[in-house]
Amino acid sequence: MNIDFSLLLVLLVLFCGIVWALGALLKQGNSWPVEYARSFFPLLLLVLVLRSFIFEPFRIPSGSMKPTLWIGDFILVNKFAYGVRLPVIHKKFIDVGMPERGDVAVFRFPRDPRLDYIKRIVGLPGDHIQYRDKTLTVNGVVASQELIGDYLDPDGGRSKIVEKTETLGDIEHQILITANGNNGEMEFTVPKGTYFAVGDNRDNSNDSRYWGPVPEENLVGKAFLVWMHFNLKNGGIEWSRIGDRIK
Fold this sequence. Notes:
The protein is α+β, with helices and mostly antiparallel strands. The chain folds into two domains: 5-54; 60-241, Umud Fragment, subunit A. The chain is built from three helices and 17 strands. Strands 1, 2, 5, 6, 14, 15, 16 and 17 form an eight-stranded antiparallel β-sheet that branches. A four-stranded antiparallel β-sheet has the order 9-8-7-13, with no helix packed on it. Strand 16 and strand 17 form a beta hairpin. Helix 1 runs antiparallel to helix 2 (32-54). It starts with a helix and ends in a 10-residue tail after the last strand.
C-alpha cells in the first residue's frame, strides 16, 4: 500500500490548526484535545515545511542504481534543486533550477505517479540518445567506459557482473554491466519538457529505455547524501556508507 505522506501531513496540520483555533475561539484552551493540537501543530508544520520544500528522506528498495546506491540505503533529496513545488498537487511556484546531465534524480513514475523512482539523468530536452552494445551515446558523443573489475554484489548476486567508470560529459560515475544481460538497445530523441533517465545497474533497471522519458512536472528532487544504510538481510547497518555523497 502506497501512503501519500504529504497529504497525510497536510491533513494533520490542518486538523491541529483548526482544533487549536476553535479551542481559542470557544475559550476551551485547557481541554486535552486543544492542548494536544497546540503541542503538535508547530512540530507537524515544521516537518511539513522541511519535507515539502527543503529535504525529503527516501529508502532505496531495489538494486537498479548499484553500485551508486545499495538496497537499504536511506538518502536525502534536495527538494528545491528543480524548483519549489506545493505539496500534494506538486505545482511548481518558484523556478530555481533544472536537472543537469549526470544528476541522480527522484521522480514520480510516469506510468503510476504514486510510485517514486530514482535514476540518473542522461538525456536533457532535445538530446539524441542511443544505447548500443551496452554503451551510451548522447548527441553523437560516446560515454566512455573504463573497466574497474569484477563486482562483488553486497546482496549476493550470482551473475557475472563487472564494474566500470562511465564518463558522461564532465561527470564520472560507476556503472554495472552484467554478462548476457538485457541490452535494452534503443535510439531516442528526448522531447521538450522531458528527461531521459537510466539506472547505473544497466542490465537490471526498469528505466526510460523501456517506458519513455520523465516529464518535468514529475521531478521530485536531486539525491545528494546517504544518511543511513540498513538491510537486515545483509547484517543490518553498514557504517561505512553513512555520510556518502551521491554523485
